[in-house]
TrEMBL record:
InterPro entries tied to this protein: C-type_lectin-like (IPR001304), C-type_lectin-like/link_sf (IPR016186), CTDL_fold (IPR016187)
Residue ranges occupied by any C-type lectin domain in the UniProt entry: 31-172
Lineage: Eukaryota, Metazoa, Spiralia, Lophotrochozoa, Mollusca
Protein name: C-type lectin domain-containing protein
CDD domains in the record: CLECT
């Protein structure tokens, strides 16, 4: 484990092998050939998390098509205790936000639409089962980014969230 970073991984049988060397910092979705990394420390704002992923030749996780969201959600649920530690609540940023020119504005929950970092819109219809009840809602009028929320009662549901808060984040690499 690198200094200042916490990684969570699948069992050794599920880790990829590159040139005979195990890549222990990634959970791999073999269907999409995408690796995911959950970073809990240090917690960062959404923009800083985006930059940290980019600095590692990764990007904040894009969770569409829904099979990717299913894989990441399953991984988080199976590793909930390790990821959450002693926390009662945890938010992890992923790679979707409202358009930057719309940040910190009073918008209805339905707009402007969230966009993934790859330029695709977040499909609120196909991803409906991943959202927490009543979300997105832009409750604080600055819920500009997408996070995955876990509490003692909620089990990793999507929430529109404040981009300035510092949280864990999920990077992906293909």
């Amino acid at each position: 484990m690198a200094s200042g970073w916490a990684y969570f991984e699948l069992t050794s049988a599920d880790r990829p092998s590159a040139n005979g060397t195990r890549q222990e910092r990634y959970a791999v979705d073999h269907e999409s050939m995408t690796s995911y990394r959950v970073v809990t420390s240090p917690p960062l704002s959404w923009l800083a998390a985006r930059d940290a992923c980019n600095d590692s030749n990764e990007m904040l996780a894009v969770l569409e098509p829904v099979e990717r969201a299913t894989f990441v959600t399953r991984f988080l649920r199976e590793n909930k205790k390790a990821i959450m530690g002693e926390n009662d609540e945890l938010f992890c940023f992923v790679g979707a936000s409202r358009p930057a020119n719309a940040w910190n504005s009073i918008w209805p929950a339905s707009g402007p639409d969230f966009m993934w970092l790859d330029g695709q819109p977040v499909n609120l219809t196909t991803t409906a089962s991943f959202w927490a009840d009543g979300r997105p809602n832009n409750l604080d009028e600055n819920d500009n980014v997408l996070s995955i929320k876990a509490t003692t009662t909620e089990n990793f549901r999507w929430d529109d969230y404040d981009d300035f808060e510092k949280n864990c984040y999920i990077c992906q690499r293909q």
